[in-house]
Design a protein that fits this description.
Helices cover 32% and strands 23% of the residues. It has 14 helices and 23 strands. Helix 3 links the parallel strand 4 and strand 5. Helix 6 packs across helix 7, helix 11 crosses helix 12 and helix 13 runs parallel beside helix 14. The two termini are 40 Å apart.
């Protein structure tokens, strides 16, 4: 039996797939936090804190290297000196799990995790018994990966680079039979120069598609259409934009579900419901409907599955309620996602105050590139408290997001804002000033210093 050592951030799902396939798995990481740490503990996969040469003992047959690893890392250097075979995460996923299956891949700047989890659930509920790996803990399955007996494997296709030895985007490894493109916008300012550079990666993906691959593409993002049209490939468009063949009309939130009318090809009209809030999630659902139709799945079965899709942890997830207060944990870190999430929560909780706790953490978020865009996006809140900029000293001040300017810009829009850098102090501030009816929203693509747990404890609430 092989021993697979998995090194790097965000690899818990792959580790779980290897364990499900019967491999012995170990891992190493600098910091592991919920929900992925809980997944690994439940699977009995040991994780060694920190990166050291001795983590490669006993000698594994293969090491899968995450894209957060770089030259100079002591475990990476020991690996290169050892002669142990190694590969990247997408290489391993394709080689060990996807190659012998049909591949449905979700790509785009936003919505990959929720949409891929939704597609996996639709396949499951329509009898497809799918395999999948998604980047968050799906609430419809016991874990965020699965090895099924059916023909399809569902995966997220990330545009971020693959590994220190492969600087191309991860999604170029997957050779999809079915592709869903949710959005194309500028992101990942640490590896992409500008929007044209991002579009170039997506164009390469489109140009490499096999002729029989089916494509569903969002009509709501102009750059998606430009990428598709420049490739010469056909696509089925979904959304509100011009030329959308699949659309949602009459969208309304009744407090427990978002209800809408599906409008499809050939005069198709049908009512549908989604437990998740907001137009942002309805757009994901319509994209899944469009791709599922192209994949040959039964329409009525897909609609029924959407009505029972519970979402993904840390995506608009209610983590606690009590005393008239609701606490929501969300992964949003790009202005478009922040604005979409706040609009969704506004629809689900009308006339309630939205208090956002925001951590500028991602490599793009902590840069000035979205200075004005974040002011506009966060203006959808009623109050904003900023945590510390993650690893602020890595960026010169002229390149770094200015919290002071954001506070001023929000104040000019009538949104009070402040900075409070210590997670314990943020929890204490909220506990002191929260009022019945408030919806407190954590936004970070990381652990936010354990703020979720600290906040629930400070408010004396029971986790949902």
């Amino acid at each position: 039996m092989h021993l697979i050592a998995v090194a790097g951030v965000g690899m818990a799902s792959l580790a779980g797939l290897f364990r499900a396939a019967g491999y012995e798995v170990t891992g190493s990481d600098q910091a592991v936090y919920p929900p992925m740490s809980d997944v690994l503990a439940r699977l009995g996969i040991p994780v060694r804190e920190g990166y050291r040469a001795e983590n490669l003992e006993p000698r594994p047959d293969v090491v899968v290297v995450g894209n957060a690893m770089s030259r100079g890392n002591p475990e990476v250097e020991a690996l290169l000196a050892s002669g142990i075979p190694y590969c990247s995460m997408p290489e391993a996923l394709m080689r060990f799990f996807m190659r012998e299956r049909r591949r449905a891949v979700v790509v785009g700047t936003h919505g990959k995790t929720t949409t891929s989890a939704m597609l996996a659930w639709v396949l499951h509920e329509t009898g497809g018994d799918p395999s999948f790996m998604v980047g968050g803990a799906s609430r419809n399955f016991a874990q965020n990966f699965r090895l099924g007996a059916g023909p399809w494997f569902v995966a997220e296709g990330d545009e971020y680079d693959t590994a220190f030895f492969d600087k191309g985007p991860k999604f170029l490894h997957y050779d999809p039979d079915a592709l869903l493109i949710n959005a194309v916008e500028f992101d990942h300012a640490d590896i992409y120069r500008d929007l044209e550079h991002v579009k170039g990666a997506f164009r390469t993906l489109m140009e490499r598609l096999r002729p029989d691959a089916v494509v569903a593409a969002s009509a709501d993002f102009p750059e998606v259409r430009k990428v598709v049209e420049s490739s010469g490939r056909a696509a089925t468009y979904f959304g509100r934009g011009s030329g959308a063949v699949w659309r949602a009309e009459d969208v309304a939130d009744d407090g427990g579900a978002t209800r809408f009318t599906i409008v499809g090809p050939g005069g198709l009209r049908a009512r549908a419901a989604l437990p998740l809030p907001g137009a942002i999630n309805v757009a994901n659902a319509v994209g899944v409907l469009a791709l599922a139709h192209a994949m040959g799945l039964p329409f009525d079965g897909v609609v029924a599955a959407l009505a029972t899709f519970r979402g993904v942890k840390r995506r608009q997830e209610v983590i606690a309620e009590g005393r008239g207060v609701t606490v929501v944990d969300d992964f949003a870190h790009h202005p478009t996602a922040v604005a979409g999430t706040l609009a969704a929560l506004r629809a689900r909780y009308p006339r309630r105050r939205l208090w956002v706790l925001f951590e500028p953490r991602s490599n793009t978020t902590r840069r000035r590139v979205f200075q004005d865009a974040f002011a506009s996006a966060l203006a959808g809140a009623d109050r904003v408290t900023f945590g510390a900029i993650h690893r602020r000293d890595q960026l010169p001040e002229r390149e770094r997001l200015s919290i002071e300017e954001l506070i001023g810009a929000l104040g000019a829009r009538g949104v009070p804002a402040e900075t409070c850098e210590d997670p314990d102090a943020i929890a204490a501030l909220v506990a002191d000033q929260v009022a019945p009816g408030d919806v407190v929203v954590l936004m970070s693509n990381g652990g936010f210093g354990g703020l979720a747990g600290r906040l629930v404890s400070a408010l004396s609430l029971s986790p949902s």
